[in-house]
Amino acid sequence: MAYLFYYWFARVNGFAARKSKILRNIKGEKLQQTFVCFKEGFRDNRGLNIQNRKRKQTPETRCGCEAKLRVHIDSRCGLWYITYFVDDHNHSLLEDKYCRMLASHRDMSELDIMQLNKMRKVGISSPQIYGSLADQPGGYERLSFCKKDIYNQIGRQRRLQGLDSKCALEFLNGLKRSDPLMYVGHTVDEENRLQHLFWCDGMMQMEYEVFGDVLAFDATYGKNKYLCPVVVFSGVNHHNHTIVFGSAIVSNETVETYIWVLGQFVEAMKGKSPMSIITDGDVAMKNAIRKVFPNSQHRLCAWHLLRNATTNIKKPAFTKDLRKCMLGEYEIGEFRKKWSEMLNKFEFHDHPWVIELFEKRKMWCTTYIRGAFFAGFRATSRCEGLHSELKKYIHPKINLTEFVQQFNRLVSYMRYREVEADFASIHGDHVPETDFHNLELSGAKCYTKEIFKLFRDQLHSSCLMRVIGCKQTFGCCIYIVRKYEMIHKQWHVSYQSTPCDLKCSCLRMKSVGIPCDHILAVLVHLNLSELPKCLVLKRWTKVAKDEVKGNVSTRRWDSEKDARYLSLMEYFKELSTLACETYDDYVDKRDKVVNELVETRGKKGHESQEGNALGDELSVVIRNPAIARSKGRSVVEGSWCK
Questions:
Q1: pTM (predicted TM-score)
Q2: Could you write out the DSSP letters of every residue in 271-290?
Q3: Which site from 170, 219, 260, 511 is most exposed, i.e. has the minimal number of CB atoms within 10 Å?
Q4: Would residue 417 count as lying in a domain?
Q5: List of E strands, 345-489
Q6: Residues 6+ apart with CB under 8 A from 519
Q7: Is there a domain that residue 426 lies in?
Q8: For 69-103, what is each residue's pLDDT tens digit?
Q9: Could you tell me the CA-to-CA distances from 533 to 230, 259, 541, 546 in Å, in that order?
């Protein structure tokens, strides 16, 4: 109470108080306590004149002020009383607006700390948190703390957490409680320090099973206080949105490191390799891919190559011509001709960078890559976009534990965006915009909203296409398609009626998975009103994920809710095998199964509350045929639940 009194006395009079000498008896009990002004005494200057000092000296704050308050205890009644008080200061006292900035007068309440932690959890930066907390009482001057106290509180909490790498691993392993398919792999160095870390959850594995035909990954830097490279494996889903298949934090970028990371990725994905991979030109990454994914088509990022051309050649005109050679849909002979013309034009026949680039042409030239499925990828721009989104959740000083937590938040938000896109794809009826209403409605019926936009663009372009001839061959017809007023360029579309199959010489259907305008022009010429199944790639449709989502009996994708019904599936199977002549007979046997369930769960050591809740849930499900059909799906077919 004495210190509290002197604390508020100091606060009102423009200085700060601190505790000083304590007098104790031989039993260690306090007899006397002295409180002094915060400027009492003098600084110990030993060690301040050390040369090559890294930390700059702080301002001198003590000036030997004699103001103090001393209290003593009366041993007879146990009460404290003031024995000495001096209020003469040898320094000027502070105004109230400055006094509140003294360290002893600053304090964060439990409510402030709770709000701070909640805001940090959703990725709000410390300056923004400070502004938000200041806005609540009506301004910064009304806060009882400053921005520095926020950083100190964050650092204090981090120190209490213990080892950063240990906490990060505990967080990831803790996710396994709600997601048994969660995969976490890591290595340590000779000093038992975390070296590499890889993780992916069950939903990532499910999405890779559906959309893992194309894989893009790139390393980004400066996303954590250790400045370790972060490798994010990404792809594209049926809404043309970027999705994450896994992530890794590595200590270096050697071939061995990338081999380990890719090996962890393959193990987590049950050995499935992607059809195509796109990366930047990192040599270590390229060599690791060649060893781990020898059968995958590896493509180099077009944007990185053009940027390297600008850096090495430093001629904008050359970069422009290189772009045409790189992205143009030429035949091999035509590409070689244009490449030779470009070298003659700029006289770069002997330039080492140009020679090396030409040797790698099968990894970047559309002429050679055309026909390999890349889902529209030509650059790692999706990776760059993902890194840009990641910056909204983290900052360079973030530690490993917070990085993993915030990365998990980003993935959760991306999955919510997919739910929004699912709703947009099924909500409302499409209004035709082209002259080919039936074909357009057919595409709108099967494709998701974003993919349908790409399909509709091709449908618009097909209006400029003309079928100028047809060649009949054994088993198929080859239609010659030419663009309006473009005589020198033509495409060949083969059509086979039984089974229905259409292929175009541009190979865009194979590369992107969406019918090109040449094929659509042939469909119009043949007067077909519906897209053939051979032109609808399932990965772009609204039902792309239905098959895997429905397989809850073998793999648990939807965590808690589906997991509870997995434990009920065996009982549904038992019900489906019941041989009953009448409905009453079925009811009797059904109730017997339900009762056995509750008893069995009790015998297995489950808590009575959980066992009763699950037993009640099963009772309701089985006794209601409609619920049984939705929860048991095809398991109860043939039983009286039907």
A1: 0.71
A2: TPPPSEEEE-S-HHHHHHHH
A3: 170
A4: no
A5: 465-473, 476-483
A6: 493, 502, 504, 509, 535
A7: no
A8: 999 988 888 888 889 999 999 998 988 888 888 88
A9: 41, 39, 12, 18
Using DSSP's 3-state secondary structure scheme, residue 206 falls into: helix
Same domain, 294 and 306: no
Task: Please indicate, yes or no, whether residues 339 and 389 belong to a single structural domain of this protein.
Answer: no
> Exposed, middle or buried, 495 (CB in 10 Å: 0-12/13-18/19+)?
buried
Q: Is the pLDDT of residue 567 over 60?
A: no
Query: Which residues touch 77 (CB under 8 Å, ≥6 apart)?
Result: none
In this structure, the number of other CB atoms found within 10 A of the CB of residue 174 comes to 10
R_g of the chain, CA atoms, integer Å:
36
Structural domains counted in the chain: 6
Q: Which domain holds residue 311?
A: 302-369
Residue 411: Cβ within 10 Å count = 18
Same domain membership, residue 288 and residue 353: no
Q: Which residue shows structure tokens 């840009």?
A: 388
Do both 147 and 195 map to the same domain? no
Return the SS3 of 626.
Answer: helix
Q: How far apart are CA 278 and CA 145, in angstroms?
A: 50
Question: Which of 458, 450, 451 is closest to 434 using CA atoms?
Answer: 458
Q: Looking at the domain assignment, is residue 350 inside a domain?
A: yes
Last residue of a domain, one of 408, 428, 455: 408
Is position 416 within any domain? no
One domain, residues 451 and 572: no
- Please enumerate in sequence order all residues whose Cβ is within 8 A of that of 389, keeping only pairs 6 or more positions apart, or say none: 410
Query: What does the buried/exposed string (b/e) look like for 570-585 if buried means 16 or more CB atoms within 10 Å of the residue's CB?
Result: ebbebbbebeeeeeee
User: Is the dihedral angle over the CA atoms 600, 602, 604, 610 positive or is it negative?
Assistant: positive
- Is 314 found in the same domain as 338? yes
Chain Cα centroid distance, residue 326: 31
Q: What is the token pair recorded at 90?
A: 């040898």
Q: Which residues pair with 84 in a beta bridge?
A: 70
Domain identity same for 112 and 148: yes
Transcribe 491-506 into DSSP letters. Answer: EEEEEETTTTEEEETT
* CB neighbours of residue 341 within 10 Å: 12
Summarised one tens digit per residue, pLDDT across range 113-135 is 888 888 877 777 788 888 888 88
